[in-house]
Amino acid sequence: MTKPTDLTHIHSFLDEIRGEAALEWAAERTRATDEHLASSEHERVVARIQEAMDAQDRLITVSRHGEFHTNFWQDAEHPRGIWRTTDWDSYVAGTPRWETLLDLDELSADEGVNWVWRGASWEPKPGGQPRRALVVLSPDGGDAVVVCEFDAVDRMFVEGGLELPLAKTSVSWGFGDTFLVSTVTGDDDMTRSTYARCVRRVRRGQDLADAELLFEVDASHVAAGAGVDTTPGFEKTVFRDAEDFFTGTNYVALGDGAGDGADGGAGGGTGVGVTVQKIDAPGDAHVGFFEDWLIIRPMSTWEVNGQSYPAGTVLVVKTTEWLAGERSGLRAVLVPEQSESVQGVGFTKNFGFALIMRDVASRVVRLDPRNDWQVTELPGVPALSSVSMWPLDEENSDDVWMVSEGFLQPPTLQLGSLASVSGAGGEGDGDDGSGGGGWRVIGVAPERFDVSAHEVSQHFAVSDDGARVPYFLVAPKDAPLDGKTPVYVSAYGGFRVSRTPVYSSAVGLGWLERRTDEGRAPAFVVANIRGGGEYGPDWHAAALREKRPRAYEDLAAVVRDLHERGVSSAALTGMAGGSNGGLLAGNMYVRYPELFGAISCGVPLLDMLRYTQLSAGHSWIAEYGDPDVPGDVEHLRDISATHRLADTANSEGEVTWPELLVWTTASDDRVGPVQARHFYALLEELGHRNAWYHEEVDGGHSGSVDHASAARTAARSYSFIWGALTRQ
User: Fold this and answer.
1) I need a surface site. Which of 209, 316, 355, 692 has the fewest CB within 10 A?
2) Which one of 65, 678, 688, 701 is the catalytic residue?
3) pLDDT-based confidence at 666, cuts 50/70/90?
């Protein structure tokens, strides 16, 4: 077949995301895919995954806001979900007495809109009792949301309170009866990345059109944002000009009156009517505050006053000194080793904590700013596990939540106090010692699948350029290394996202519990390829822009290692990825078809010469490059799965293609369905008969709006890959 010459208009009607012809085209192929997957086993897996998601005994975490301890809950009775609260004593006793704040199923029925929960932001009340929150809802699971002010005492939306229409919005509570709003009000207020470029101060009851403009950024940048720090005595407003996905400029206005009759601007034409100061820090640095301290974490080597600080170093300095130009007080409190990466830094009322990974396994340290920033290792972190930690109530307490989990280890929720690393408890919350290392166990998630047949190990493959690439292998115990184990490989490789050991009921029920006709259990692999954040900023930078093929070479090296060690073989190896992982999946399909028997490619980027023109694609130029810049076109075409696929039409020799599932959603306003549609249309043009397409109408970028749709989305890839690998 002759190679198509115009890739963007093979079927131009597919560009109309909600166009009738496009939706009919997608629906026809979706029905065929559903028929292909239909089986009693597939329906059983969907049902079991949904049952696990709906289970009443699953682990429950709460957020504390004074006397409110809130949780958002979905189950079979409440598919859209309820936002609810309980008292502290009944919660920690394991018998929470729930009261409903907002029922989304009732709200959806009353308003005729199938609302999807996107979170709530409580009013700051240091030392006091908040009662209001900003509730964020999506009508279809996409990134565009509405925001409404809610009274948690009266259990109702506030009449005359803040109400923002559907848009890509971020909003923060301001000082007094004000809000800092970044929202798209029209084309003039939108960046090329489809996000808001202005910050407005909206007073309660004020029309958005009358709000004061505080801050704006150039339309070529990604977005404008703002937030406040209400810590008594250290109040401040911070503005962010996100110039691209990874770099930007931060500005700060000290005090609680930002914009009140102030003169001047943020500099560079980016500020309007606010006296602020630019924070002198690398554009790629993570910048934060704790009381009068400024915390800077550069993502590349930084030279200051003749001192060189490696990427990922946690640096602190007094804010007022730094803004005055004094540099001698800057000091490093955490310098990650070569095998380490600082994944995040957070604060309680008096302490800080840092989550660190060493060879993709977690450790946690406490930072003591009142004791010369002393660093203390926190005990109680299991081996080969991942840990998340967040404050119970950062404004009023030093207590923290910690969740630890592994591939075969259900999550354990513990409560501890940073006021005592030996675990004496804090703010009146006692410690019974049952968690070990000073942590109080609040709950342990039940096992949702049988783990007895599998074990976890970590291995390292060698990529084409000699880099050692780690991967986790969840493999059947004592399985012979004869290449006959079906394996499902998951990877991402972009945007500094770290893939860590997590417990997934969907993986267990949808994959690990399956058996071949011969009784062979399958294996599951997570590959920590370059482009992610597993080894810090340099691991990410190693696969940026023109270096992106390193990520694909890394994954190929992992798969070859599995084959060479006899774990599996090409015919029994499946791979799945979504979003940037969909770009990865598309490239593995066109570059390394000989390594796989099946690939699932979800909500993908695929046409890299047009991606900046679609949905929020312009915001990812820093990750991939700009097709409007001549110097970037060559490497973007090289990683464009659509163009590489077209090149195969006139290539010499026959190619044995793995089975392929391309899936997306019409409501995805981040990546969008257009690239997936055109890629599949090209597959049809080229006669790829073992490729399938699936497109949901709702679900946004995640592909789900409730547990039923989430279960179907998860099970679809597992069933597709299993069938392709084991079909006789």
Assistant:
1) 209
2) 701
3) very high
The lowest-confidence range among 96-100, 103-107, 494-498, 649-653 is 649-653
Measured distance CA(309)–CA(313) in Å, rounded: 6
Distance CA 696, CA 36 (A): 16
> How sure is the predictor about 221, in pLDDT bands with cuts at 50, 70 and 90?
very high
Averaged pLDDT of the chain:
92
In 121-151, which positions are buried (b, 16+ CB within 10 angstroms) versus exposed (e)?
bbbbbeeeebbbbbbbbbbbbbbbbbbbbbe
| Euclidean distance between CA atoms 706 and 79, whole angstroms | 6
Residue 258 is predicted with a pLDDT of: 55
pLDDT of residue 182: 97
Structure tokens that stand for 118 in this block:
């996107």
Residue 214: phi and psi, rounded to 5, are -100, -35
Question: pTM score, two decimals?
Answer: 0.92
Backbone angles phi, psi at 115, to 5 degrees: -65, 140
Record the tokens describing residue 432, joined without a space.
């019974």
Token duo for residue 590: 């066109």
For the CA atoms of 387, 522, 577, 39, the dihedral, rounded to the nearest 10 degrees, stands at: -120
Q: Is 563 a catalytic residue?
A: no
542-552 residue pLDDT tens: 999 999 999 99
Exactly one of 386, 579, 702, 717 is catalytic; name it: 579
Nearest to 573 by CA among 485, 506, 514: 485
The number of beta carbons lying within 10 Å of the beta carbon of residue 719 is 24
Q: How far is the C-alpha of 83 from the C-alpha of 137, rounded, in Å?
A: 12
Owner of token pair 């897996």 = 45
pLDDT tens by residue, 235-274: 999 999 999 999 999 999 999 865 443 333 443 334 444 5
Query: How many H helices and E strands in the chain?
Result: 14, 39
Q: How far apart are CA 270 and CA 266, in angstroms?
A: 6
**Cα separation of the two ends of the chain:** 30
Active site residue 579: yes
Residue 553 pLDDT greater than 60, yes or no: yes
Residue closest to 571 by CA, chosen among 487, 697, 676? 487
Tell me if 707 sits within 8 A of 50, measured CB to CB.
Answer: yes
Q: Which amino acid does the sequence have at 142?
A: G
Per 3-state DSSP, the chain is made up of helix, strand and coil in percentages (nearest 5) of: 25, 30, 45
The per-residue pLDDT for 187 is: 83
User: In whole angstroms, what is the distance from residue 79 CA to residue 75 CA?
Assistant: 5
Residue 84's DSSP bridge partners are: 71, 100
pLDDT reading at 17 higher than 70: yes
- Whether 38 and 716 have beta carbons less than 8 Å apart is answered as no
Q: CA 648, CA 688: separation in Å to the nearest integer?
A: 11
Average pLDDT over residues 453-473: 97
**What residue spans of 396-450 are helical by DSSP H?**
none
Cα 445 to Cα 63, 387, 503, 538, 678: the distances in Å are: 18, 15, 10, 35, 42
What is the model's pLDDT at position 470?
Answer: 97
